[in-house]
Amino acid sequence: MKVTGILILFLLLLSAIGTYSLNAYINDKTVPVKNTLVAAGESKNLLAIFAHPDDEIMAAGTLHKLADEGVNITLLYLTKGEAGPTGGIVSQDELGAEREKETKKVAEILNVEHLEILDYPDGGLVEADQAAIKKSVTDIIRQTKPSTVITFDDTVGLYGHADHLLTGKLVKEILLKESYGVERFYQMTLPQPMIDTALKISKTFQERYPTDPEDGLPQPTVAIKMASEAREKISVVRAHKTQWQVTGDVQPLHDKLPYWIYYRIFDREYFTEVELD
User: Fold this and answer.
1) pTM
2) pLDDT < 50 stretches in the chain
3) 258: which residues sit within 8 A by CB, 6+ positions away?
4) Secondary structure, 3-state, the chain
5) Distance from chain centroid for Cα 65
6) 27-32: which pairs have CB atoms within 8 A and are 24 or more residues apart?
7) Residue-wise pLDDT tens digits, 84-133
8) Rounded distance, CA 72 to CA 105, Å?
């Protein structure tokens, strides 16, 4: 019994050392860590703008953490994601409606009450009426009166997705022209060590991410530690049942490790703050 106890302690220690080493390898510890993206004294309204259902995975830990702080969060999706993979769960014609259901489940997990899913064409935002998209987004900004906005970057679109990129560009154009009371504007991004790792193990990043580092994601200016939200984050990933192929590639190995270990390795979500006049 004593030997068994020592062996268990040794394995736990080995696991902790491995987790710590991988965490140090994957993260950029020079990026300042904050507890929140909503500053004291600002209104506790946040608007997160995405192209598709499941895009919120990249910020899910942060969003749940903020909701627990009492921040009123609105999730806005420009499309229903009807052009994505079906995961063999529904037909292509049924996918948009199914992904809407998945996203409502995500809103419950994240304790988000306000959910907006628009009906612009998935995979076709570049060809869509961009003035109409900007008007839709602007109307929701006016309605929800956020002090903080989160969306995609406007240089890559995370890994080179045209819908992501256009979403980031249009939101930035709106807020740089007029802030509508928004105090803080954040773009989701990744640190270089995480990008380098993704380029080794993610087919999506290998196929779409720019080859020239100068054209890559913006440098993070803030990181939110979110290991405390590991259960909610993995629940969000699993809620998007139809997208298991996508999540398996952009969240590599999440289904091979216990979630509480996985999100102690990938324990930070990164953002870059865009200055508003």
Assistant:
1) 0.93
2) 1, 3, 5-14
3) none
4) CHHHHHHHHHHHHHHHHHHHHHHHHHCCCCCCEECCCCCCCCCCEEEEEECCCCHHHHHHHHHHHHHHCCCEEEEEECCCCCCCCCCCCCCHHHHHHHHHHHHHHHHHHCCCCEEEECCCCCCCCCCCCHHHHHHHHHHHHHHHCCCEEEECCCCCCCCCCHHHHHHHHHHHHHHHHCCCCCCEEEEEECCHHHHHHHHHHCHHHHHHCCCCHHHCCCCCCEEEECHHHHHHHHHHHHHCHHHHHHHHHHCCCCCCCCHHHHHHHCCEEEEEEECCC
5) 13
6) 27/191, 27/193, 27/194, 27/223, 27/267, 27/268, 28/191, 28/192, 28/193, 28/194, 28/220, 28/223, 28/270, 31/191, 31/220, 31/221, 31/222, 31/223, 31/268, 31/270, 32/221, 32/222, 32/223
7) 999 999 999 999 999 999 999 999 999 998 999 999 999 999 999 999 99
8) 17
Q: How far apart are CA 157 and CA 161, in angstroms?
A: 6
Two tokens, residue 248: 């398996």
Lookup: tokens for 238 = 């699993």
